[in-house]
Amino acid sequence: MILPIVAYGDAVLKRKAKEIDKDYPNLKELVDNMYETMYGAFGVGLAAPQVGLPIRLFLVDTSPFAEDDSFTEEEQEELKKFKRTFINAKILEEHGDEWAFNEGCLSIPDVREDVFRKPIIKVQYQDENFVTHVEEFDGLIARVIQHEYDHIEGILFTDRLSSFKKRIIKGKLTNISKGKIKIDYKMRFPIMSRKR
To answer: Is 148 considered catalytic here?
Structure first.
């Protein structure tokens, strides 16, 4: 089932999410619905706060990036195969020289900006069977994980922009929060915009 994606301006996107355990109600169904929602919106990642749930759960599937010719064949192969569910994730380390990449977000449609992040991360997380993993990721996979991880920490990619960039996009963000945007996937807008 495709779930509505929460739009910029909703308080759930700014809240630090809570850990869950294997008894979380209907978890398998939620994960399946989140994948369906992400694919329906042509996303490469989706976090539970983006569907209105303040829990430490996010998914990543980088296969759409495998079509990009700017990556080597080896990188394309890695991107094509990477699909993972992260529960109760914790970034243990981030290192390397920060690099810029143009990021967007399903909760903030039609806004894309360069964000600087470190290229290598070490993450501890549980998979959908609650098996604990500690893994190192780099490059674009690390970036998508960092972006989704930010969501469960209550941080949006726009929070990482300079104050100058924030001023430039302020009008767009206001319009999104008021539902004044055309999108081709289901969204839920903050309550204040529903009173119009």
So the answer is: yes
Q: Which residues contact 37 (CB under 8 A, 6 or more apart)?
A: 2, 3, 5, 46, 51, 185
CA 70/CA 139 separation, integer angstroms: 13
Per-residue pLDDT tens for 90-144? 999 999 999 999 999 999 999 999 999 999 999 999 999 999 999 999 999 999 9
Residue 42 tokens, joined: 């042509």
In the chain the domains, ranked by start, together with CATH numbers, are 5-194 (3.90.45.10)
151 labelled binding-site residue:
yes
Q: Is 147 annotated as a binding residue?
A: yes
Half-sphere exposure of 116 (CA within 13 A, CB side): 7
pLDDT at 194 over 70: no
User: 94, 113, 148, 153: which one is catalytic?
Assistant: 148
- Please indicate if the annotation marks 105 as binding a ligand: yes
